[in-house]
Amino acid sequence: EGRYIANDWLSFEGAVGYLNAAYEEYFSRDPLGNVLDYSDLSLKHTPEWTGSLGVVVNTRLGAYDSTFRVDAAYMGEQYSDVQNQPLLKGEAHTLLNASAHFRADNGLSFGIEGQNLTDEQVIKEGFDATGSFGFIEAYYNPPRRIFATVKYAF
Fold this sequence. Notes:
Elements (H helix, E strand, L loop, with lengths): L1 E4 L4 E9 L8 E3 L5 E3 L11 E13 L2 E12 L2 E2 L9 E2 L2 E12 L3 E8 L7 E6 L7 E5 L4 E8 L2
Antiparallel strand pairs: 1-2, 2-5, 3-4, 5-6, 6-9, 7-8, 9-10, 10-13, 11-12
Protein backbone atom coordinates (compact mmCIF):
# COMPACT_ATOMS: atom_id res chain seq x y z
CA GLU A 1 0.00 0.00 0.00
CA GLY A 2 1.31 3.42 -0.79
CA ARG A 3 0.70 7.04 -1.59
CA TYR A 4 2.63 9.25 -3.96
CA ILE A 5 2.23 13.01 -3.63
CA ALA A 6 3.18 14.35 -7.03
CA ASN A 7 2.81 18.02 -6.08
CA ASP A 8 0.68 20.23 -3.84
CA TRP A 9 -2.53 19.41 -5.75
CA LEU A 10 -2.13 15.84 -7.12
CA SER A 11 -1.66 12.53 -5.36
CA PHE A 12 -1.94 8.84 -6.21
CA GLU A 13 -2.88 6.02 -3.85
CA GLY A 14 -2.66 2.31 -4.41
CA ALA A 15 -2.58 -1.07 -2.75
CA VAL A 16 -2.09 -4.69 -3.77
CA GLY A 17 -2.94 -7.71 -1.68
CA TYR A 18 -2.07 -11.36 -2.19
CA LEU A 19 -3.53 -14.13 -0.04
CA ASN A 20 -2.39 -17.74 -0.31
CA ALA A 21 -5.01 -19.29 1.96
CA ALA A 22 -5.62 -23.03 2.08
CA TYR A 23 -6.98 -25.64 4.43
CA GLU A 24 -4.44 -28.16 5.66
CA GLU A 25 -7.32 -30.45 6.65
CA TYR A 26 -11.01 -29.78 6.75
CA PHE A 27 -13.52 -32.53 7.48
CA SER A 28 -17.20 -32.22 8.30
CA ARG A 29 -20.28 -34.44 8.40
CA ASP A 30 -23.48 -34.25 6.39
CA PRO A 31 -26.90 -34.62 8.07
CA LEU A 32 -26.69 -38.42 7.69
CA GLY A 33 -23.33 -38.60 9.47
CA ASN A 34 -21.19 -39.22 6.38
CA VAL A 35 -17.68 -37.72 6.53
CA LEU A 36 -17.08 -34.92 4.00
CA ASP A 37 -13.55 -33.86 3.03
CA TYR A 38 -13.36 -30.13 2.18
CA SER A 39 -9.54 -29.99 2.36
CA ASP A 40 -9.07 -29.13 -1.36
CA LEU A 41 -11.68 -26.37 -1.43
CA SER A 42 -11.09 -22.63 -1.29
CA LEU A 43 -11.72 -20.82 1.98
CA LYS A 44 -14.83 -18.67 1.85
CA HIS A 45 -14.36 -14.92 1.31
CA THR A 46 -10.66 -15.24 0.46
CA PRO A 47 -9.81 -13.81 -2.96
CA GLU A 48 -6.24 -14.54 -3.98
CA TRP A 49 -5.68 -10.98 -5.30
CA THR A 50 -7.05 -7.59 -4.34
CA GLY A 51 -5.96 -4.15 -5.40
CA SER A 52 -6.92 -0.52 -5.54
CA LEU A 53 -5.78 2.63 -7.29
CA GLY A 54 -6.92 6.18 -6.70
CA VAL A 55 -6.18 9.65 -7.99
CA VAL A 56 -6.91 12.75 -5.88
CA VAL A 57 -6.84 16.34 -7.05
CA ASN A 58 -7.01 19.15 -4.46
CA THR A 59 -7.44 22.70 -5.76
CA ARG A 60 -9.08 26.02 -5.00
CA LEU A 61 -12.05 26.86 -7.23
CA GLY A 62 -13.26 30.39 -6.50
CA ALA A 63 -14.34 30.45 -2.84
CA TYR A 64 -14.11 26.66 -2.40
CA ASP A 65 -11.37 24.24 -1.47
CA SER A 66 -12.16 21.39 -3.83
CA THR A 67 -11.27 17.71 -3.83
CA PHE A 68 -11.85 15.43 -6.80
CA ARG A 69 -11.25 11.70 -6.48
CA VAL A 70 -11.48 8.70 -8.82
CA ASP A 71 -10.67 5.22 -7.59
CA ALA A 72 -10.97 1.63 -8.66
CA ALA A 73 -10.94 -1.46 -6.44
CA TYR A 74 -10.26 -4.97 -7.74
CA MET A 75 -11.23 -8.20 -5.97
CA GLY A 76 -10.46 -11.67 -7.31
CA GLU A 77 -12.99 -14.49 -7.44
CA GLN A 78 -14.17 -15.93 -4.15
CA TYR A 79 -16.78 -18.26 -2.74
CA SER A 80 -19.34 -17.25 -0.13
CA ASP A 81 -19.77 -20.75 1.32
CA VAL A 82 -17.44 -23.48 2.58
CA GLN A 83 -18.68 -26.05 0.02
CA ASN A 84 -17.64 -23.78 -2.91
CA GLN A 85 -21.11 -23.96 -4.48
CA PRO A 86 -20.60 -22.69 -8.09
CA LEU A 87 -23.86 -20.71 -7.93
CA LEU A 88 -22.48 -18.77 -4.94
CA LYS A 89 -19.15 -17.86 -6.51
CA GLY A 90 -18.36 -14.17 -6.63
CA GLU A 91 -16.58 -13.48 -9.91
CA ALA A 92 -13.48 -11.29 -10.11
CA HIS A 93 -14.51 -7.67 -10.53
CA THR A 94 -13.44 -4.05 -10.41
CA LEU A 95 -15.61 -1.33 -8.89
CA LEU A 96 -15.20 2.28 -10.02
CA ASN A 97 -16.03 5.24 -7.75
CA ALA A 98 -15.73 9.01 -8.11
CA SER A 99 -16.43 12.07 -5.98
CA ALA A 100 -16.23 15.83 -5.96
CA HIS A 101 -16.33 17.80 -2.68
CA PHE A 102 -16.30 21.55 -2.13
CA ARG A 103 -15.67 23.38 1.16
CA ALA A 104 -16.18 27.12 1.69
CA ASP A 105 -14.38 29.17 4.33
CA ASN A 106 -17.71 29.89 6.10
CA GLY A 107 -18.23 26.22 7.13
CA LEU A 108 -20.48 25.21 4.23
CA SER A 109 -19.48 22.11 2.29
CA PHE A 110 -21.20 20.01 -0.33
CA GLY A 111 -20.36 17.19 -2.66
CA ILE A 112 -21.50 14.54 -5.04
CA GLU A 113 -20.34 10.94 -5.02
CA GLY A 114 -20.84 7.96 -7.27
CA GLN A 115 -20.20 4.39 -6.16
CA ASN A 116 -20.04 1.33 -8.41
CA LEU A 117 -20.33 3.58 -11.45
CA THR A 118 -20.16 0.68 -13.93
CA ASP A 119 -23.07 -0.99 -12.09
CA GLU A 120 -21.24 -4.30 -11.52
CA GLN A 121 -23.38 -7.04 -10.01
CA VAL A 122 -21.38 -9.50 -7.91
CA ILE A 123 -22.39 -12.12 -5.36
CA LYS A 124 -21.09 -11.06 -1.95
CA GLU A 125 -22.84 -13.57 0.33
CA GLY A 126 -25.03 -16.59 0.02
CA PHE A 127 -26.51 -19.67 1.60
CA ASP A 128 -26.89 -23.15 0.17
CA ALA A 129 -29.97 -24.79 1.68
CA THR A 130 -30.51 -27.37 -1.06
CA GLY A 131 -29.95 -30.23 1.38
CA SER A 132 -32.60 -29.07 3.84
CA PHE A 133 -35.03 -26.66 2.17
CA GLY A 134 -34.26 -27.07 -1.54
CA PHE A 135 -33.00 -23.58 -2.44
CA ILE A 136 -29.88 -21.45 -2.81
CA GLU A 137 -29.98 -17.79 -1.78
CA ALA A 138 -27.46 -15.19 -2.97
CA TYR A 139 -26.94 -11.57 -1.93
CA TYR A 140 -25.36 -9.05 -4.28
CA ASN A 141 -23.35 -5.88 -3.80
CA PRO A 142 -25.22 -2.57 -3.98
CA PRO A 143 -26.00 -1.28 -7.49
CA ARG A 144 -24.74 2.02 -8.88
CA ARG A 145 -25.38 4.75 -6.33
CA ILE A 146 -25.11 8.49 -6.80
CA PHE A 147 -25.75 10.82 -3.91
CA ALA A 148 -25.12 14.35 -2.72
CA THR A 149 -24.14 15.73 0.68
CA VAL A 150 -24.48 19.16 2.24
CA LYS A 151 -22.84 20.06 5.56
CA TYR A 152 -22.49 23.15 7.64
CA ALA A 153 -19.88 23.31 10.43
CA PHE A 154 -20.29 25.97 13.07
